[in-house]
């Protein structure tokens, strides 16, 4: 009997040791990094840039897979159903907190099916207009124009529920103005109509807006983040340009399936924070207007909780639906 107990104890010890060894060895095989949006956007560039650095550091490939569709829901569901061994990860944006309020049905639970790893970066939106738009030199002027022309001004977005749309809804709510939302299927056609004057304004991502600003086709009015963007340092924030306390900071974060061990999550978090400090990464981020964050696991959990509360109230108040 004593011999049997000894064997069982040794077996249990070896099992625990094996699990800890597997966790400490992360990554011990290729990592599938799911991007739930098409290639070429800010999210995709962030994942590919960091994935390249992590592949070189750990000797395991970080394979970027684009699984676009349904506002990020298709890729998110794929990761929610994946193994929780740390080798299938997701990069996504505010959709992780907003989609549960925007869509009548989701095939996954953002709160129960995922564990946050780190907020990687923020890519500001920028309020832009056509160069010839009158009385739009500042946020104060835009608000004044809207109040004297209720319901007549318009702003474009890349679609219902996108950060571009939601930035406008926050603006309308705080400024107490009536501006019509014109949703498009993507940012590109929306920008074309803003440049052409068919739509008055747009809270476009700085990644896609900056080239048109630099070419003189779009006039920047203000950025949506709390601080000025390093990419457009001479453009004021919305808050300092006429709407105090306004802030919309489109963020990009990494998530893993729930049940992933704390040890793996912490190691993953440390890996991302270290990579974000690399000068090559910072240079690549500058090209798309991204500003690195690199929050700890605890900071990320608090950040996501705060964002969830903020956006749930905005979406319910404005009665926004994506389907």
Strand order of the largest sheet: 2-1-3-10-4-11
Task: Briefly note the structural class of the backbone.
Answer: alpha/beta
Please give the largest β-sheet: 6 strands, mixed
Give the CATH topology of the largest domain. Answer: D-Maltodextrin-Binding Protein, domain 2
Number of strands: 11
Overall geometry: globular
Average of pLDDT: 92
CATH class of the largest domain: Alpha Beta
Q: Write down the Rg.
A: 22 Å
**In percent terms, what proportion of residues is strand?**
15-25%
- DSSP helix count? 11
Order of helices and strands: HEHEHEHEEHEHEHEHEEHHEH
Helix proportion: 40-55%
CATH architecture of the largest domain: 3-Layer(aba) Sandwich
N- and C-termini, Cα separation: 64 Å
In the CATH hierarchy, what is the superfamily of the largest domain?
A: Bordetella uptake gene, domain 1
Q: What ranges have pLDDT less than 50 throughout 5 or more consecutive residues?
A: 14-23
Overall tally of structural domains? 2
Write out key terms for the chains shown.
323 residues, alpha/beta, D-Maltodextrin-Binding Protein, domain 2, 2 domains, 6-stranded mixed sheet, 5-stranded mixed sheet, 11 helices, 11 strands, globular
